[in-house]
Batch of 2 targets.
Target 1
Amino acid sequence: MNKNHIVFFENLLGEENVYFDKAHQIAYSYDATKKRYEPDGVLFPRNEDDVSKILKYCNDNHIIVVPRGAGSGFTGGALAVNGGVIISFEKHMNKILEIDLENMVAVVEPGVINMDLQKAVEEKGLFYPPDPASQDYSTIGGNVSENAGGMRAAKYGITKDYVMALRAVLPNGDIIKAGKKTIKDVAGYNVAGILIASEGSLAVITEITLKLIAKPKLKKTAMGVFNSVNEAMNAVYKTMAAGVTPVAMEFLDNLCIRAVEDKFNKGLPKEAGAILIADVDGNLEATLEKDLEVINRVFKENGATDFIIAKNEQESKDMWFARRNCSQAITCYGSLKINEDITVPRSELPKLLQRIKEISTVFNVTTPCFGHTGDGNVHTNVMVNKENQEEVKRGYEAIEAIFRATIELGGTLSGEHGIGISKAPYMKLAFSDEEMNLFRSIKKAFDPNNILNPFKMGLDENK
Ligand SMILES: Cc1cc2nc3c(=O)[nH]c(=O)nc-3n(C[C@H](O)[C@H](O)[C@H](O)COP(=O)(O)OP(=O)(O)OC[C@H]3O[C@@H](n4cnc5c(N)ncnc54)[C@H](O)[C@@H]3O)c2cc1C
């Protein structure tokens, strides 16, 4: 990086907020993909005005800018794949600005950690439902930019369902407001809607206004045991169709059950084909009982051999332990986990899981599956040994076949992790040339010099 540029940033932000040293280049070179790309430097803006001046300068000088939250992304969105500067919000722009109890709205800076917001609003009797498993460290800016989902998505939806308004800075430094604190707003294009899930490629989000809801008072957990994945998948969508919307309806297949049981010895049914874990919530005991009755009936009608209701908080935690520790337990099947978060309409889940099984046989790979089946989102993990190149190649071929099957079933490449660099090569499977060109036109309208997080989302034809 040209010394003049560094001096500009130091004069703007103060030396204590500008780092072009090796330690910072390494510290900000990775995310959850474990791939490494060192940025030239890291900037810590103190406020929106700083962001605006950084972007204007970078735009004028064609310097790449990569916004970064906690770097917990699974697809490389926060990686500086072609150098440039990282803008990080963790140091200064990390405050909850307002919790408006009358309108049930929170206004936050992008660096606020999801769990900090959840705790702050719960102290006031309110509820911010989106709960990605990374909630202890991922930021609201990152959540909005990836449209993060979580365990509670089946009932409460995902990040986009809570974003009411955004403030953001365009690559040329212009500051824009998109949306309002109002429940209704149909004036003009839905710019906030375009920025959600844009993976830091269109604008830098500087303030987020989020809808809050009343916190339900009661919650209960139950687990259904099935002989086959097919039975469990039928039970998922038939439960919803029967009129019950559980907070969560999570699934583990037999490979996952065995991996968790072998590692942690929790008394799980090792011979089961699949288990479903469901939470229901509400304000009346009687409503929860009724919901569990319906779930029990639908599970049994679809072949459940057992239905266990947690008697207390500890038993509920024990049931959830299996799901929460599944991801690490399945590493017993291979040293490289190629994990995807494909999503289909819920009624297609039985077909999707059948197709995954067939594809695993064809490519001779082990594919434990678990995840948020309540919203049709399956974490599909092709496990291979990274030392065996031929096996790794087969693993990626299996992944491509799984993507194709997902799209044939009306599904999407990603339910929550985004595209970034990891899934960029597969965008062509999901979108026509016309659709990809429309994406490129949108990118160009926001970022004509292609300085903001370029070479992501399959937008650059040659990358
Ligand atoms: C163990 C684990 C579990 C996970 N579980 C879930 C899960 O259940 N559900 C889920 O959805 N995801 C999950 N994730 C993925 C990840 O946590 C989410 O994608 C999260 O939203 C990323 O937030 P972050 O702050 O780490 O963002 P980063 O990874 O730093 O960035 C993500 C993207 O957002 C952009 N960005 C960040 N801040 C801004 C901003 N202010 N303006 C513009 N662009 C910005 C970045 O450029 C990048 O493209 C998990 C990750 C891990 C490691």
Target 2
Amino acid sequence: MAQLDTREKLAILADAAKYDASCASSGTSKRDSRDGKGLGSTEGMGICHAYAPDGRCISLLKILLTNSCIFDCHYCINRKSSNVRRARFTAQEVVQLTLAFYKRNYIEGLFLSSGIIKSSNYTMEQLVEVARSLREDHDFRGYIHLKTIPDADPELVRLAGLHADRISINVELPTVSGLEKLAPEKSAPQIESAMLGMKGAIEDGKDARKKYKSAPNFAPAGQSTQMIVGADAATDGDIVTKASTLYDRFSLRRVYYSAFSPIPDASAVLPLQRPPLMREHRLYQSDWLMRFYGFRPAEVVQAAGDDGMLPLDIDPKLAWALKFRENFPVDVNRAPREQLLRIPGLGTKAVDRLIRSRRFRRFTLDDVARLTVSIAKIRPFIVTTDWSPTLLTDRADLRSLVAPKVKQLELFAA
Ligand code: SF4
């Protein structure tokens, strides 16, 4: 491997980390002030944002320890057979970089992942060493998110949880057959066993903290995982079902969905095209339906079409409402919270405001309009003091009435 300076390594290893979906800040246009004009840049290498459990947005240095890997997962740009420029930080280099960024107030924490070098255990030891050194040698109080290597020794994974705020263990693909085909060196039982071990360790840590104040705060931000969407034949129904199982079995904080992106020199077993980004968005919406809106996984799956895919042109809540019209209209002045949450276009905050306010007054259509961005979308599904959608939910063309209007794309848009 050619000798690279820290800046070159950072450029390679921050770029390689962008495939990890743990933050939502990406996709803006490229701007910088290297021409001597203006101020600022959108190319701050390796800085991304994540959300703390209390909702704060925090900036993280997001890098890989190395993008070399002895595995050959077909969907991964860092796989053994990929023809990319390789780089590797030592554990101490990551520590120094993190501290330097932290002291300059660029970041509030570190997100660290890695390709597998030498062996899973060796790699995991390096990741743990970064977190240990930051916490113990430098008393680092910032946020640390470590991606673990599932087939590493469980004791190493446990050590990671002692130093990190959040641990993630990627399930990678929604189905076992997909994993066998696209990541032949990985094993679904091994991944699940690592997740189960981490769940147990987090629960034990919480129990210990209840009894002894001095007990270590074990992975206080819990564990999360990531699923790649569109690299195998799994349908949205499969993905939703898998996600709900993961939430239930492993008490995950988040399941991240990452639309597979075509990579240079892609393997022939991969699809030629990336899935529409909207598919990733619809899956996040369905995830919210299960976590915050009281939808059961089977109900979200019912919102999908016969091919098991969620519609791309309308959100899954609206798709469900259009299919199960017998549940509407809902009287916003009387219905319980769980029914209000089913109304397309009404979010959890709007529902809570509505419930608080209706103790003192009765809601008209105009009042509801103030709680939503599109009253046209909601109107067929609600009853207010001055509005009842007579037969509207029976109309055959209801979908076209409530679906967002399709915009003509500009032929010469940038
Ligand atoms: S183990 Fe991780 S880094 Fe290595 S090829 Fe697979 S996904 Fe990529």
